[in-house]
Amino acid sequence: MTLMRTRILKVNPVNPEPEIIREAAVLLRRGGLVAFPTETVYGLGANLQDPQAVQELYQVKRRPFEKQATLHIADLSQVEAERVKVTPLARELMRKFWPGPMTLVLARPDGSTIGFRMPGHPVALALLKEAAVPVVAPSANLTGEPPAVTAEQVLKTFENRIDAVVDGGPAVSGISSTVVDLSSVPPRLLREGTLAEEIREELRVKS
Fold it and tell me: If pLDDT is split at 50, 70 and 90, which confidence band does 203 have?
């Protein structure tokens, strides 16, 4: 893989500067790899519409190609655009827990699945909205290692192998999102995360 100079783009974590967000969004649209903060951990994003960018993302993370990456969104219309089955339960969970640390796995008509997450962080939401392309963003770490919770940790692992790090300060919780699989019946909790108890209760109420 070609080495590059990783840009460090510092932003206000509450009110991110639009010009900095635009710079990061352009890199994403053009096929770059951009790390950014969420309320859980740092994610490493790539444009899903750019196969080469997605391949580089997997190579940089040493992630098995058969393991899906979650689509991060800023608007519910991006779920509809993927033509997935959105059940009443899915809509209720989205209403209650998005933006926030919950990933929903939904089924496509062909039987495949895709995970969605709307992060509850101003920087992440601003970047995803400005990028205006579907962004896959697994955690910013080598597969099997703890996820990065600061820009410094991202750089320690990926400096000169990714295009940019949007430094919005430390991630708030440091615990990955709760993953709920709604692609089959009954729903399954695939990863505990920070919302496990709340979502278990929601699933009990709806069952």
Answer: confident
Contacts of 3 (CB under 8 A, 6+ apart): 160, 161
CB atoms within 10 A of CB 175: 17
pLDDT in tens, 31-59: 999 999 999 999 999 999 999 999 999 99
Eight-state DSSP code of residue 124: H
Q: Tokens 């295009």 — which residue?
A: 163
For residue 147, give the DSSP letter.
P
Beta strands 34-37 and 42-47: pairing type?
antiparallel
Q: ∠ at Cα 112 (109, 114), nearest 5°?
A: 100
Nearest by Cα to 60 from 72, 50, 70, 52:
52
Q: What is the pLDDT of residues 83-122, one digit of tens each?
A: 899 999 999 999 999 999 999 999 998 989 999 999 999 9
The H or E element containing residue 92 is helix 88-97
Residue 172's pLDDT is: 84
- Euclidean distance between CA atoms 82 and 104, whole angstroms: 13
pTM, full prediction: 0.94
**Residue 114: what residue type?**
I
Q: How far apart are CA 139 and CA 97, in angstroms?
A: 20
| Single-letter residue type at 165 | V
Q: Are strands 42-47 and 135-136 parallel, antiparallel or unpaired?
A: antiparallel
CA neighbor of 23 nearest in space, from 138, 123, 153: 123
Tokens at residue 137, please?
């963003």
